[in-house]
Amino acid sequence: MADRINVPDTPASITQLVGDIVSDVQTLLRQELQLAKTEIRQEWEKTKTAAGSMAAGAGLLTVAGLLMSFAAVYALWAVAPGLPLWACFAVMGVALGFIGGILVATGRNQAAEVSIIPPQTAESLKEDVQWLNRQT
Fold first, then answer.
1. Residue 48 has pLDDT above 60, yes or no
2. Rounded distance between C-alpha atoms, residue 45 and residue 54, angstroms
3. Residue 6 in 3-state DSSP?
4. Is this structure's pTM higher than 0.90?
């Protein structure tokens, strides 16, 4: 009979049971808040990493784009001497705009992976609400 659970000799009062439930709910809420804080910190770190990467990439691409576009414009002008200089700049502007659009779309996709509402906390809170509903 070692498998038996120890049951107190006297039944617990309703006040004591309600007090225990309130204490358990308080402990549960504290744990949920801690989980939410942890998840928010993790999501913030992902956000900072994505933003930093995008900003650094954008800065470097701007400088490289300026230098390469001038080089390409003048190379195009040298290869096609009948093409006016303004048309060479226009061709390069369109090409760089296309590449820039691709880069922005890539950064947007990375930023879309950042979750504003912590998923584990939301799921855990749903379970807690279901548990509380069963208790009443």
1. yes
2. 14
3. coil
4. no
